[in-house]
């Protein structure tokens, strides 16, 4: 609270011309940041702060013992006085980018009145004096506070005609009265006070802004922490509610446990009876190779279908009502069943034993009662056995693994009827792969490559040469030249699969040229001679020469000449090529296998088309191997190396 206010120590502030204005020195400014109240310099103040703390609990520096009779007015004329003070303060702040005062009038947000550019607070009695604060807001967020008292009126109240004297100045929450006052003498000018205040405001704005930004960040962090705390409280409440629900269900679970215990006792008695029957049936089974799978007495020749009890023991409610089981065995006995031994099932698949039926159960019953269908379920052992049965077909197959897949294993494969009986009994390769997963295909490919490596095919004998015959013939195709519609047509060179005899006959008839077999005799020495023989126009000579160079290489090597635009037959298949087909062609893998890989990776056909386009642009052996291996091992499409290749150049226009 304000203390030690002495009227005898008053200083008089006069609104007069002052030439020798003294700025605030660095030492004086630095002293404001010393001591316990240094942080007050970067904390702006409001009327509520002044009225609730400053008048009561805030300690005042020793300099406050002197009362500086600064700005003098009456309460009725306070608006004009404050407007003049704010104007003088703004003159001192000119060029700093900071302005003082507000442009509002009437009641302020904090309960005071806004007049003359300042917010005027309520009158309070301090040490027997009636005092009243006036807060001037600054545009950078700082505040300047003037504290008025009335030496002429009632000590308890301030009337409209009472004189008001500003005797104390605050910058933000810091008392700077001793800073803006002269070091000696009592008479100071209004210009000196506003100059000192504006100097302090300008020097303090950077630190003030930094402190405000830091405070804003801390408030934001606190808000986030509070929000996270509210979220955790909500989660805690939800967990408590779940705990209450679980606790409420304890009684029901206890009743269910009692019922299941009774059913287990009944099942144990049934198992003992069945075990006795099975033991008798085993003694009657034929030997020397008895089937270890127990069979009901009197039905040794019947076919039994076994199912593993993985989730629960046999008993009421754990098995279908119909059909009735023919046999129920313990886990130890289930381990000796022939199909369990042959396929190598894991003990977890029959942890509660196994049950046998004379007819197959439906897939719905198997799923509903969580049984393991030993007939359908495949294991690593059974997959290996099924694939090993394919080895004879693999040895004799002339193509690669992709062609083998398409011919024998794909959906609607043309040679599926030639598969071994074991694969047919398992439902075909597609069903085996569905039950065991995409690893089936990877294992098949590895086995195929191993078989081919151990059994390389014998090289086919080279065909005997046939002198006097050619591999291709030249064909002239009528096309319009630059003469326009209805003009003469030139002969453009193409290739077909007929022999040289057909070519000679055609050349003699259509081109009126006598010419021998190009492969055996009379081959022209240069392209110009060839163009003359075929009657090509001079305008098409460059194109003709380029085609002839390609033709001579293709002629010798027996390659097909690339078709020219417009050569597509009318009956050619125009079905759009899928993304799987495009990618499969690039990496040498059948489209069905690519689709299987795409299903595993959740790729669409558009994704496959985009992969094919990217690989085609950056097609290098390393990138092809990278994509091929990713598909073989079921990995995702890998990023391609774009440094070792360049995108293909566009084909030249014809």
Automatic annotation (TrEMBL):
Region (Disordered): 280-301, 453-474
Compositionally biased tracts (Pro residues): 456-466
Protein name: Defence against restriction A N-terminal domain-containing protein
The organism of origin for this protein: Chimaeribacter californicus
Domain Defence against restriction A N-terminal: start-end pairs: 66-205
